[in-house]
Every structure is written in structure tokens, then in C-alpha cells.
Write a structure and sequence with these properties.
The protein is α+β, with helices and mostly antiparallel strands and 200 residues long. Helices cover 42% and strands 10% of the residues. The chain has a domain at 73-199: OmpA-like domain (60s Ribosomal Protein L30, Chain: A).
């Protein structure tokens, strides 16, 4: 009996020791680790946050102002004045060559007219050829055309661009004098310069 009592006491003591050894020890709460310093990758802004770099486009090229191809109202009025001052060039009977007085009439203001017209390539003039009442209508239409062509050739020689001059013959259809004498016939044998209807 004594032996078994000792065994029981020993078992209780061992159990108490084991229980005491297994008792939970209070662990001191550990402080959180210090924050890690930001790395170079962390310092870089995220792609969404990055400032968008704008590549500058080509600088706008200044387009040169286009020169107007038709004169303004003031310049047209000046042209009309010059045309009114340029006297009709007259021709001898049955001739289409320019006489000295015809050249003088064309020369008077044609230089200024040339200087204006070269700046306005779309502005055009018409050289009209006229005849007196004698001869057939067909013959006078051809003669009037030759007179208009002779005057145009002179104006081109002065420097007025050929492309800005057209010609037309009215033959004996548009006389400015209706008398039947040489004085009147001389006035009808002429060329006359006008602005094209489209240029007005």
C-alpha cells in the first residue's frame, strides 16, 4: 500500500510539473517593424500619374497673302479713267496699219495702264475694230479684225500681257457718226478699247 501511494504522489507531482511547464508564458508585444525606406521604384510616379509629355507639332507656316487677281473698285475706276482718256486710234481708208497719230493716241496712257494690269492677271480688255460704211459687211468685218489685231500688237509691245487683251471686229455695224462724208467716215475707221464685261 505504501508503494502505490508513493506512485500516486509521484504521478501527481510529475503532472503538476508538466502542467506548470506547459503554462503559457506572457510574451511581450513586439513593436511593429519600422517602415522601410521608399525604394527608387516606389518614388517613380505610376504611369497614370506621370505627366504626359506632349510632342510639339510643326510650327504653323505663315502662308503668304495671295495677291488679288482682280482690281478693287478704286483701281477699276482709275482704269476706266485711263481708257476714257486713250483716244480712239484712227486708220486710213482700207488700211489697218497704225498711223503716227494712232500710235500717239495709244501711247498716251498705255504705260500706266500696263503697270496696273500686270498686277491683276484676271482683268482683261477688249480691243474693238470698226470700219466706215463703204464696202461689204464681210469685207469690213475682216478689216475691222485686222485693225483690232494691229492695236493689240502695239499694246503687247508696250508691255500689256497678251492674255489680258482680246479683240473683236464690229465691221461697219457700230458707227459713231451717221453722215455720209469723209469727215464722218474717218471717225468710224477706228479701234476702241473697253474693259471686258466680266471685268466689271
Amino acid at each position: 500500500m505504501k508503494y502505490s501511494s508513493k506512485l500516486v504522489i509521484l504521478a501527481v507531482a510529475v503532472t503538476a510539473m508538466i502542467g506548470a511547464g506547459c503554462a503559457k508564458k506572457k510574451v511581450a508585444a513586439q513593436a511593429p517593424p519600422p517602415p522601410t525606406p521608399p525604394t527608387a521604384a516606389a518614388e517613380r510616379p505610376q504611369p497614370a500619374q506621370q505627366a504626359r509629355s506632349v510632342t510639339p507639332g510643326p510650327a504653323p507656316v505663315a502662308t503668304p497673302q495671295q495677291t488679288p487677281r482682280m482690281p478693287n473698285a478704286q483701281t477699276r475706276a482709275r482704269i476706266d479713267t485711263l481708257l476714257a482718256r486713250i483716244e480712239d486710234a484712227y486708220f486710213d481708208y482700207d488700211k489697218h496699219t497704225l498711223r503716227p497719230d494712232a500710235i500717239k493716241a495709244l501711247e498716251a496712257d498705255s504705260n500706266e495702264l500696263r503697270d496696273i494690269l500686270k498686277d491683276y492677271p484676271d482683268y482683261k480688255l477688249t480691243v474693238e475694230g470698226h470700219c466706215d460704211e463703204r464696202g461689204s459687211a464681210e469685207y469690213n468685218m475682216a478689216l475691222g479684225q485686222e485693225r483690232a489685231d494691229a492695236a493689240k500688237a502695239y499694246l503687247v509691245q508696250v508691255g500689256i500681257p497678251s492674255a489680258q487683251l482680246s479683240t473683236v471686229s464690229y465691221g461697219k455695224e457700230k458707227p459713231i457718226c451717221d453722215e455720209h462724208d469723209e469727215t464722218c467716215w474717218q471717225r468710224n475707221r477706228r479701234i476702241h478699247i473697253v474693259a471686258d464685261s466680266q471685268a466689271r
